[in-house]
Each structure stands twice: as C-alpha cells, then as structure tokens.
Amino acid sequence: AQSVTQPDIHITVSEGASLELRCNYSYGATPYLFWYVQSPGQGLQLLLKYFSGDTLVQGIKGFEAEFKRSQSSFNLRKPSVHWSDAAEYFCAVGEGGADGLTFGKGTHLIIQP
Amino acid sequence: DVKVTQSSRYLVKRTGEKVFLECVQDMDHENMFWYRQDPGLGLRLIYFSYDVKMKEKGDIPEGYSVSREKKERFSLILESASTNQTSMYLCASNSGGATNEKLFFGSGTQLSVL
Fold first, then answer.
1. What's the gap between Cα B85 and its chain centre?
2. Dist CA B76 CA A51 (whole Å)
3. Would you tell me which of A27, A47, A85, B5 could form a disulfide with A2, CB atoms 3.0–4.6 Å apart?
4. What would the mean pLDDT of B61-71 be, rounded to a whole number?
5. What phi, psi does B94 have (nearest 5°)?
6. Tens of pLDDT, residues A26-84
C-alpha cells in the first residue's frame, strides 16, 4: 500500500528566508506526486504535481519541488517566503485512475516577521 | 471558475442523529471523493465514486455510507452520528483518466457531534 510521510509537523521560517518542506513516499511503481496547500478556513489548492519527465517541477506561487527516486522524496521548496505562505501543506501520492490520493499528515508553516 | 460546493460550512448534531453532508460539483467530473481531516492525521479517504450509483470504500469507511444518484452530487451519510465523527469533512472531485489526478476541493464542512 502506498504511504506518505511528512516528518515535520510544524516549521517556522522568517519572512524572506528560504523554505524546504520534506516529503517521503512509499510506492511500488512510478508514483504520481502532489503538493497541496490549505489556507485557514479554505479547501485544498494544488501547488504542483509530478507525473513523469523533468524531475524538477514548477508550481504556482513561486514553489517548486524535486522528485528524487533514489531517496523516495518529493520535497517542496521556495527561495523566499512571504507572510501569505503561512498555511498547512500536504504532500500526496496517487497511482492514477479514480482511486483517490493518499495524503501525508501535513506540515504547518509559520512565518515570522 | 470550477466549483465544488459543500452545502454547510458548520454543522452541530447530537449523538445518534442521522447526518447528511452534501457535495455538488459543476465540472462534469466522473470521480468524487469524501475525506475527513483531523489535526495530526492529515486527510483520510472515507469513500469515493467513479460513476453514478457506483461507490468504493476508502481507508476509513466504518460508520459512513454514501449516495451518488446524479453525476454532480455526492452525499456522505452518517447513519448514527458519534462523537468520534467530529471532524472537518472535505469533498473533492476530478475527471476520469490516469493523467489527471488533480483534485478540486470544496471548502469543507466542520461537523461537531455533541
């Protein structure tokens, strides 16, 4: 069965600093990988996704993620965070089709002024 | 704009009540999903449906049922609500096909069972 681990429950970053959120997955084949963001009181919004091809994917809001098969990782990065990036971030893995996604437990990002 | 609409933002129910959570999408999506979100547990899949009148159990279906009589509507039913079903419930949808896994989410229904 597929699974997703986000090792950091909370991360605090100063505004303007760089960010990296970690995600490790367990899956037998080539996974479909996603990062979603949830702002307070909102549903989830897709930041970026990886299906195949270039292992560095660009997303919305200045985020990017790199797929590393050897490390079973799909870490999310942003070079300079803004206060509006404070939110809950979820990594997810899917196998295609209609079976839905398996989500990690989320990382709560706090931005310090 | 594409939209997934959940009928209630907040619900308060009593133990033992039958509860209906409604979700409607306007994107003609084949697939619809119900997740629950709990602090420290992330999102967990309850049920999903890939076609009208079709349903599949997710990871935590116990205590829940679903109904999909029309393509655009997917209802989650708590037959006899219990306090451990107090949670945020998120509905999502996407189109069929292996390459489009992007899920569109509703804003969620925060259910409190007293």
1. 13
2. 30
3. A27
4. 96
5. -155, 170
6. 887 778 899 999 998 788 899 999 988 889 999 999 999 999 999 999 999 999 999 99
- The separation between CA B61 and the C-alpha centre of its own chain, rounded to angstroms, equals 11
Question: CB-based contact (8 Å) between A1 and chain B?
Answer: no
8 A C-beta contact, residue A91 and residue A4: yes
Residue owning tokens 């560095």:
A56
> Across the interface, do A49 and B44 touch by the CB < 8 Å criterion?
no
Asked if B47 has any chain A CB less than 8 Å from its own CB, the reply is no
> Could you give the count of Cα atoms lying within 13 Å of A104 in the half-sphere of its Cβ?
29
d(CA A19, CA A109): 10
Cβ within 8 Å of residue A32, ≥6 positions away:
A49, A50, A51, A93, A94, A95, A96, B101
Q: CA Rg, chain B, in Å?
A: 13
Q: Are B25 and B93 in contact (CB under 8 A)?
A: yes
Give me the pLDDT at residue B101, please: 64
